[in-house]
Amino acid sequence: MTTIAQKAPDVISDPGRMQAVRRSVAGRHRTERWFRRICFGITAFAVLLLVLFLAAILYNGIGTLSQHFLTAPPGPDPSQAGFYPAIWGTVWLLVLVAVFTLPLGIATAIFLEEFRPRRQLLRRALAFVQANITNLAGVPSVVYGIVGLTAFVSMFQLFGSPNSPAFEMGIQYYDQFYNQAGVVMLVPVNRPDAPYTDPEQGMTAMTPEGEGLKVHVIDADAPWPEDETLSARTLRENDMAGRIDRRQWYYFRIPFGRGVLAGALTLMLVILPIVIISAQESLRAVPDSLREAALGLGATRWQVVRRVTLPSALPGIMTGAILAISRAIGEAAPLLMIAGIVFISNPPGHLMDDFTAMPLQIFNWAQRPQASFHEIAASGIIVLLAVLLTFNAAAVLIRQKFQKPLS
Amino acid sequence: MAGSALFSILVTLAIVLILGIETAHFFGQDEVSLGEFFGQVKWNPLLGAEKHFGIWPLVCGTFLVAGIALIVAVPMGLVTAIYLSEYAGSRVRAVVKPALEILAGIPTVVYGFFALVLLTPGLKMLHEGFGSYNALAAGIAVGILILPIVSSLSEDALRAVPSSLREGVYGLGGTKFDAAVKVVFPAALSGIISSVLLAAARAVGETMIVALAAGSTPRLTLDVREEIQTMTGFMVQMALGDVSNFGVEYFSMYAVAATLFVITFILTILGAVIRKRFRETYE
């Protein structure tokens, strides 16, 4: 107080005003103290909320987290249900999303940052692209889900439907017969909608193991042959076939249908703007002196990118990419639009296979009314968060280990 | 590489075209008209003999949840941002910032679970009027989800204000409170507003939390204890249901998505414009 009084002599001469100044200073310090307390309290509350929240999920889910949970398929009985297909579905999505998104995103970022044209018109065009990418980052992911549903799952209904696709490879259709002795015989057919095969004397078929055999056909009421080898290739003339198919690992069709490929492409749309923006930021962080030095030595623009800019920006790009992909792992809404909630008991075997992913399976369990399903949903959340924390830790490690100041 | 840059424009075009064409399909059907879509206050496309396509109950639900979320997130986020940028020492910041970033990295389906399994029972204990699905639990969870966006972006804006301004306040005998609230905060206002708008866009488009916790009854209400449905919630319901691919219900999904797209697009652009137009630069 005394310091103020010394600096403001005219205030001292008036005792009333001096009182007012003292009150005002004391009041402002009181406000300051209270504001500091409130600030600290609310920040602490926000952190506490996080701790409480994680503790609650741990408490709910740790009991049902077991090796069985990680290796079993989901089922109607929550105590037996597992997370296996969801874990593998997520792994498939992760790999595919990385393969699609990273080259595209990084190439876009390099183009926008390193190959800036000098002409006014092109610069305007690039500014438009830039604004566009920023806006894409704000589109809700569920809208991307709807776009993916139209563009990838059914391809605008231009190429047939997912059930009878216009183009297929890596698939073989069979008509499957069961004869009276319980032997299975398969007759290959060309198209899924071909008419069903009628048993004919001498037609070729195969066993499920792939051995060929000549079919022996008898009348509907003829006596069944005694001989075992003959019985194994005998059908009655009125036997009916069922249509099955076998898919190779490289099975591919257009339109894609509700498969893991469509899911990954949709997730690509969601995280592409994030990858581009973060890669741009790390390219921008490379000081221009490095580029100028390389250009001065006679390097081309591409050589500058290849040998100078990209290597020094790579840790930053990697960090951004890992964070973007961990965002994709956690996304449920677009996948829900693509895959829906179907019962999946196997991990995907090829690109077109139906799939489930960790967030989808968690949603599936969480929306059921029974509390026991909520417990395994919490177990699933623990697995999901463990994966995401690993990813985030990797990103932080890369950032700390490789990023050193360049200027 | 120019091709990959063009790809982003293609994606935008594809979004607009797909939503536009399929929405036009929707309004081309006999059961529905543009006037009904924006004029009626009943949304009931799935059940009952007579179908109603008035978008307002879904819009109302969406803004109810987003409003609750902003009421939760904006004051908390701003105070946290002021604390981190003006008061906290480097050690506190080293703990709190990553903690908030973790909060931002948690998948939304986890927040949905949190709202359904932890928040709703808590609210029911406080007041008997709450249903198993209600707007308040969903809104609070969305608020916690967007809290890191508000606090982190606002903190960036606050820290961008040069320290000479703060020193000026101290030189005039002001306290830290005076500096933070009366000088730094107004100076960073454009950045803060655009962070709030970004958070609002996230809240409007948030899906999994409302799909789990808010329910599936479209209702024109401001009662936070009641079950409601948001635009995103309706889309999820359609994705889960077994609706034939070409009925009017199916196309209504695109009309709702187009509405949602327009709303979030406006919020995003507004944020960008405010940041650009009202930014104060200091040397």
Explained architecture:
- The complex is a heterodimer of chains A (407) and B (283).
- Chain A has helices at residues 2-7, 9-12, 15-61, 67-71, 84-114, 120-136, 141-153, 228-231, 260-284, 288-296, 301-330, 333-339, 358-366, 371-402; strands at 167-178, 184-189, 204-206, 212-214, 216-218, 234-236, 242-254.
- By secondary structure, chain A is mostly helical.
- In chain A, the strands form 3 sheets. Chain A has a 3-stranded antiparallel β-sheet with strand order 2-1-7, with no helix packed on it. A two-stranded antiparallel ribbon of chain A has the order 3-4.
- Chain A is elongated and about 130 Å long.
- Chain B has 283 residues and is mostly helical.
- Chain B has 12 helices and 2 strands.
- Classes of the chains: A mainly alpha (407), B mainly alpha (283).
- Chains A and B meet through helix 3, helix 5, helix 6, helix 7 and helix 9 of A and helix 1, helix 3, helix 4, helix 5 and helix 6 of B.
Strand content of chain B: under 5%
Strand order of the largest sheet of chain B: 1-2
**Span from first to last CA of chain A?**
48 Å
Give the helix tally of chain A.
14
Helical residues, percent of chain A:
55-70%
Strand content range of chain A: 5-15%
Order of helices and strands of chain B: HHEEHHHHHHHHHH
The mean pLDDT of chain A is 86
Features:
heterodimer; A: 407 residues; mainly alpha; three-stranded antiparallel sheet; two-stranded antiparallel sheet; B: 283 residues; 12 helices; 2 strands; 1% strand
Structure summary:
The complex is a heterodimer of chains A (407) and B (283). With 407 residues, chain A is mainly α.
Describe the protein's topology.
The complex is a heterodimer of chains A (407) and B (283).
Chain A: H1 2-7, H2 9-12, H3 15-61, H4 67-71, H5 84-114, H6 120-136, H7 141-153, E1 167-178, E2 184-189, E3 204-206, E4 212-214, E5 216-218, H8 228-231, E6 234-236, E7 242-254, H9 260-284, H10 288-296, H11 301-330, H12 333-339, H13 358-366, H14 371-402
Parallel strand pairs in A: 5-6
Antiparallel strand pairs in A: 1-2, 1-7, 3-4
Helix pairs in contact in A: 3-14, 5-9, 5-11, 5-13, 7-9, 7-12, 9-11, 9-12, 10-11, 11-14, 13-14
Chain B: H1 2-28, H2 34-39, E1 43-44, E2 52-53, H3 56-87, H4 90-105, H5 108-126, H6 135-159, H7 163-171, H8 176-187, H9 189-205, H10 208-213, H11 231-240, H12 248-277
Antiparallel strand pairs in B: 1-2
